Description:
single chain; 12 helices; 79% helix; elongated
Amino acid sequence: xxxxxxxxxxxxxxxxxxxxxxxxxxxxxxxxxxxxxxxxxxxxxxxxxxxxxxxxxxxxxxxxxxxxxxxxxxxxxxxxxxxxxxxxxxxxxxxxxxxxxxxxxxxxxxxxxxxxxxxxxxxxxxxxxxxxxxxxxxxxxxxxxxxxxxxxxxxxxxxxxxxxxxxxxxxxxxxxxxxxxxxxxxxxxxxxxxxxxxxxxxxxxxxxxxxxxxxxxxxxxxxxxxxxxxxxxxxxxxxxxxxxxxxx
Length: 248
């Protein structure tokens, strides 16, 4: 029943309950009087309409959530597909500002808003989900990703701000502690390390992103970069180069 009423406005819930009561009363009167008259038929018809209207809305909300989940999965495979983004926006619009209370549904809506760049709405929905379900790791990820984005921009706008860098390091640590198998999480950690100038760690989390989301846009930035060489190996490579040159 929780999911049946979830997303329905108060008047729709009341309408459904009154319809159920009316239906029960009409059936009781029919049994008591042992007859089916015009008034009974009118009562049953009205009760069915009162129950059906909110029920249709409830099923529509469920379908909308399912469609949003499908869109999000497809966008992981094709992150630059504008048609999919438009479809996600339309499916999100079908839910509108309905009073969703289910934590999993709130998390799905927060992820959809984040995907569309609506960070304030995404953070609000994710925080609401965490109030209802404190151990919801997907909702926690959304919140931490948004916070990390802000710190990254702060460091990029002022690379010499040591306080901002320390705050960024702290936020990276928090996001790393969330155990979700998510390309969104690993790619943002990579971007955080990049902002700090730590190319080795950035590349490591880019490689992790390839596992979860092979077509993530941030990966392309590293595809054409030269492989990173550990400091201990550079002298050995130079020595080997000189040796080969001497042989020739």
